[in-house]
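Q: I'm building a small set of examples for a reading group on sequence design. Run inverse folding on the following structure and report the sequence directly after it, with nothing in between.
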């Protein structure tokens, strides 16, 4: 303990090093016995066992239940510029090995805890990087992260989109703005499997785009031939572009957001699609599906990709009811022999539970439902084995009779 005597440190309660031994990167407040040498928000602290044995180096977050997030389990590893360069390099090498840059130039480069950088999300749209710093430690290391990014990605612009609610839990305010090589225009056109898609890094959702649905877009494309498609919660209509690229007859995009639908039209034009094959409908999906039901409308292929229904455990039951309800109505609108692509991006909704909810929806809809394929966040959003929480997006391709 001598070496660390003057450093900010946390000492765990007896027996509370178990999660750490399994490499889980979060230390909860109730696992901590003492805090030494008054660390500030985001400071790096040494983590010691109750017997004073060195366990880890972590970022301290005084107001969060997740009191510390592990940076390293190696006592010799300093949390300096080289540390961030090493982590970014490994993460970027993985993505390069997974995707050909000539075909797909919008990628998640860093998926936070799963890439050993807790609280740090980085998306790369061509030569524009968008950074989200969601934890106190990530926020405190902003200057080092930006410097490391400049080394690993020279000549790239960097924009910060740390305007996410979870920062409140860490005692942090929203932060947005250019961090390096500012641009006049916040828009980038990315390539994905031969499609061109608009990303607005300032006004768009998250970092501007749903990169995580790339593999699902490819799946829709495979199944869309000659289909009359209903794309619910369409956002900027990327599933619509994929469906039409796959030979769909017609797609109806439905979203509440006018701006999202305007971008959907631009995406269609950019891909030289026949605009008569797309209808953009500004509506509440929940109401519109019921209206369609009353009108007896039917579709060959329906996509249901709603926003997160459960933010915390107490909302899980009502989220299940919400998913069941919307899936039931959607199934009733699928022609016999048609398809439903249904998704949940609520991390708390585990895969098996989601499947059960969809199965219950089929019972209530009185329709036969066969699960053809499982979908998940694409491989640039990997899940570290020690961090199952990283698996949040799951989907099912359902054949409906
Ligand atoms: N499927 C999209 C992402 C969907 S994000 C893609 O792959 O790119 C969720 C979208 O649902 C947002 O665009 C939001 O505006 C929309 N939305 C949320 N609640 C809605 C509702 N009740 N009715 C219609 N759209 C809604």
């Amino acid at each position: 303990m001598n070496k660390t005597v003057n450093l900010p440190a946390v000492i765990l309660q007896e027996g509370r090093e178990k999660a750490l031994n399994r490499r889980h990167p979060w230390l909860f407040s109730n696992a901590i016995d003492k805090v030494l040498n008054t660390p500030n928000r985001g400071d790096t602290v040494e983590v010691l066992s109750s017997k004073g044995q060195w366990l880890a180096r972590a970022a301290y977050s005084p107001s969060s239940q997740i009191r510390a997030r592990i940076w390293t389990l190696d006592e010799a590893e300093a949390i300096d510029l080289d540390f961030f360069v090493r982590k970014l390099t490994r993460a970027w090498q993985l993505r390069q090995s997974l995707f050909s840059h000539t075909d797909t130039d919008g990628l998640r480069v860093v998926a936070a805890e799963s890439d050993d950088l807790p609280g740090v999300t980085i998306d790369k749209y061509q030569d524009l990087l968008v950074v989200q710093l969601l934890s106190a430690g990530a926020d405190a290391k902003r200057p080092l992260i930006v410097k490391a990014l400049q080394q690993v990605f020279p000549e790239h612009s960097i924009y910060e989109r740390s305007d996410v609610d979870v920062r409140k839990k860490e005692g942090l305010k929203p932060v947005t703005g250019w961090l390096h090589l500012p641009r006049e225009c916040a828009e980038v056109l990315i390539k994905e499997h031969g499609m061109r898609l608009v990303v607005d890094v300032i006004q768009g959702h998250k970092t501007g785009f749903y990169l995580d649905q790339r593999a699902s877009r490819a799946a829709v494309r495979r199944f869309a031939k000659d289909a009359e498609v209903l794309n619910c919660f369409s956002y900027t209509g990327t599933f619509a572009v994929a469906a039409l690229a796959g030979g769909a007859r017609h797609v109806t995009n439905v979203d509440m957001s006018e701006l999202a639908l305007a971008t959907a039209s631009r995406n269609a034009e950019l891909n030289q699609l026949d605009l008569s094959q797309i209808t953009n409908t500004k509506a509440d999906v929940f109401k519109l599906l019921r209206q369609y039901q009353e009108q007896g409308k039917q579709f060959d292929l329906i996509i249901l990709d709603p926003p997160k229904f459960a933010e915390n455990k107490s909302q899980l039951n009502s989220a299940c009811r919400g998913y069941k309800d919307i899936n039931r109505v959607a199934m009733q609108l699928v022609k016999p022999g048609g398809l439903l692509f249904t998704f949940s991006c609520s991390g708390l909704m585990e895969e098996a539970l989601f499947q059960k909810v969809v199965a219950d929806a089929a019972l209530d809809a009185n329709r036969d439902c066969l699960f053809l394929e499982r979908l998940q966040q694409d491989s640039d959003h990997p899940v570290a084995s020690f961090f199952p929480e990283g698996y949040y997006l799951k989907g099912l391709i359902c054949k409906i009779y």
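The longest strand covers residues 334-344.
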